[in-house]
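Why should sequence recovery work at all? Because a backbone constrains its sequence more than one might expect. Tight turns favour small or flexible residues, buried strands favour hydrophobic ones, and helices have their own preferences. The token representation captures these environments compactly. In the example below, the structure is given first.
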């Protein structure tokens, strides 16, 4: 059982993370007492397991079907950064909606960890992630602001293009148990460190590939609107931006060359004083 986890956040919206040091944006779990350590499984010292996740919402305007209190349909979710199944780490997700909703505390026990509703107002949704017993015994609290209307509120609203708000977060589990490490070491949703040569882990039951795939979000009807947070995508964006800058520099150089040539020609043709 890990003794702590922390989070690394990126994106426009930064979640509030529970813990004693919110300014440092890291949440440290309280280590168990000496009497409790004896019952814990063997841990990997100085090791970390990272789980990249994305949480956010997709909201559609209902158009002609909209009413005073039902103007939008929306889905709030927690997904793998590459749309892989998070059930290998997350046991359940709890979404706390506005008090005006019937049964505002919604519990999702299996992936995909998402919730769909309809309404007319924007509000903050508290998302609580509970982990499997060999991962962490303390839940993680995230907060997401449900947004229904686009930034440019003066423009026309569309029933086909939704309002999408997402945040990227890396949940870092420090000193994981050997059992947890062995269970997730080949899972695509989890980033694990290299073990020292010759180090052996306990055997684990091989998970059915079809069962694992059922929990991912790659085939979700909302996936076309998901933000790509992969490093490869960021590198492509940087490369494209660099090409644009280089093309702009080349264009400015050509313009300067033309101006220099014109000035030189004027000096040649101007009469001597």
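From this structural description, the recovered sequence reads:
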């Amino acid at each position: 059982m890990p003794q702590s986890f922390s989070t690394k956040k990126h994106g426009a919206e930064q979640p509030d993370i529970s813990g004693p040091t919110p300014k440092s944006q890291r949440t440290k779990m309280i280590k168990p007492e000496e009497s409790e350590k004896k019952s814990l499984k063997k841990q990997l010292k100085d090791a970390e397991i990272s789980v990249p996740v994305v949480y956010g919402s997709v909201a559609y305007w209902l158009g002609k079907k909209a009413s005073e209190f039902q103007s939008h349909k929306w889905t709030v979710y927690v997904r793998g950064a590459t749309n892989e199944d998070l059930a290998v780490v997350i046991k359940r997700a709890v979404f706390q909606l506005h008090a005006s909703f019937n049964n505002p505390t919604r519990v999702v026990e299996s992936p995909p960890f998402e919730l769909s509703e309809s309404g007319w107002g924007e509000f903050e949704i508290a998302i609580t992630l509970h982990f499997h017993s060999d991962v962490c015994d303390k839940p993680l609290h995230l907060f997401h602001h449900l947004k229904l209307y686009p930034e440019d509120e003066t423009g026309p609203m569309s029933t086909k293009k939704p309002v999408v708000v997402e945040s990227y977060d890396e949940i870092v589990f420090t000193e994981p148990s050997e059992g947890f490490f062995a269970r997730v070491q080949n899972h695509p949703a989890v980033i694990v460190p290299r073990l020292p040569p010759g180090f052996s882990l306990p055997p684990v039951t091989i998970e059915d590939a079809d069962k694992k795939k059922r929990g991912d979000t790659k085939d979700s009807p909302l996936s076309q609107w998901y933000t790509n947070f992969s490093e490869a995508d960021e590198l492509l964006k940087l490369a494209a931006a660099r090409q644009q800058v280089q093309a702009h520099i080349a264009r400015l150089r050509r313009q300067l060359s033309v101006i220099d040539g014109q000035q030189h020609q004027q000096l040649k043709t101007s009469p001597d004083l």
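A few observations help interpret the result. The two ends are 91 Å apart (CA to CA).
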